[in-house]
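INPUT
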Amino acid sequence: MKTRNTFGIAIHGGAGTISKSELSAEKEQEYHAALEEALSIGHSILAQGGTAIDAVEMAINSLENCPLFNAGKGAVFCADGRFELDASIMNGKDLSAGAVAGVKGIANPISLARKVFEKTQHVLLAGKGAMDFAKSIGVNMEEDAYFHTEHRYKQWQDLVGTDTVALDHGSKKSKNLGTVGAVAYDKMGDIAAGTSTGGMTNKAFSRVGDTPIIGSGTYANNKTCAISCTGHGEFFLRAVVAYDISCLMEYGGLSLEQACEKVVNEKLVEFGGEGGLIAVDNLGNICLPYNSDGMYRGWAKEDGVIYTKIHE
Amino acid sequence: MKTRNTFGIAIHGGAGTISKSELSAEKEQEYHAALEEALSIGHSILAQGGTAIDAVEMAINSLENCPLFNAGKGAVFCADGRFELDASIMNGKDLSAGAVAGVKGIANPISLARKVFEKTQHVLLAGKGAMDFAKSIGVNMEEDAYFHTEHRYKQWQDLVGTDTVALDHGSKKSKNLGTVGAVAYDKMGDIAAGTSTGGMTNKAFSRVGDTPIIGSGTYANNKTCAISCTGHGEFFLRAVVAYDISCLMEYGGLSLEQACEKVVNEKLVEFGGEGGLIAVDNLGNICLPYNSDGMYRGWAKEDGVIYTKIHE
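OUTPUT
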């Protein structure tokens, strides 16, 4: 197997309105520390010659396990006071992909999404069926109490009993953020992407956003790029955002940076889709564009320096 | 409102192995008649100056109501002996889109998919949540008996109790077919697409294929084309087939016909994805490519001549 010395990883913890006045120095430090930990885990896997998809999964597990983000532990409340989680993961090496939508009681939906393509002939499993699959392969189910966090409960209490649905992104309240994702390229030249979320606060009718949709929230193809999105999911679905970046590169001849700029800061802005994404190509370029006020994000390359940012 | 004299519609009733020896002359005539009826309904709407999205919805309703096809009445059985239906619809005029996945008891999932974008701020609703939405807007729920057909029951009996999942497409049994779809262009110059299915016989874990996924099973954009797919859903999901056609036109400069040829007869064949699709652009071009043995399909333009075909 040929290897090379370049590798890298980028992650996000959600894009939207992140009010500086509401973000205390202490809380800001907690976000930086959580992003740094996830990057460190992913970077370590890549440095040891591990695969991009392993780095993506493990970095996302770290973010899912952190109560700060709207994924796994710390997910937002649905209208019924419970938690419905979505995730997808794709391997650019062979275009294998797995996804789960509307699962309850799963601590790490990104790992279940990966099991979907490893253990079934399917790509996307939904709701109770996806949970039955999880049980059939011995995945431990968590009680609702595991996902309960006080700050998400308070956000829900502001909306419960109304028809209002709050995005985890773009709300006036800076706390309403947190879809997580990772993209990576490894020493073998392969790239991968994954995304995990709890969706929108007070969402009803098992609304599914772009996160579990291959082509919209997540896409990876060694020929072009690996992408993980975060933002107003309905717009990202209709704009098929992740695959759009790939097509602009493959058919339009744009660089990763040019394609990201066009989709996030031109097309999505015109369309009204607030959010951002993280992107890598297999040359080692990393882009982290967003058209919102901020995006929790970070990246690390082979030199081991870890960068984490919230605003510009 | 500017109008023009051109309009047209194309439909499909599934692509796969359609064995001529197993298809009796009588049964073949039934298929042609069902396709002709759906086309006639859609054509009539367009001829009277109706919208492409109305023509798409009404033509698909006709196919959903026909027990020959794997959508609505006539859907295949899941592993639990019930019926889980998926559908999506998109309007090329404004990129509005709606979809439902894994719904039970809905006679016309394509109409419910349309209600999703007309009555909510969402694109995709799944499972019980989508059914709760249907009830909330007064959609009549059908008992399982409504969906039961003897030929689907026999197909399921061949598989029940096993882990085998049969595609409605590409199975060795020619009866195993029938995802339906429609694409249309109207006198106003707008285009639309929709797709509806019962998925795979004996499917478990609420597997979702490409049908309810905007960008994979369905896509419409006045700038390029309207597409409805049918085939081995997992491959269509990973290849983001419908949006791929659109991108090859918009970024790659291909014509509708060239883009269809490249995706269906080159890319999908290499990838191992059996199936086909129907496509229109707003110039009035219609393509109906497939890489399988046959595809139930038909089309009609402003001259009112209705064409229906199964094999070449």
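end of record. The first strand of chain B starts at residue 8 and ends at 16.
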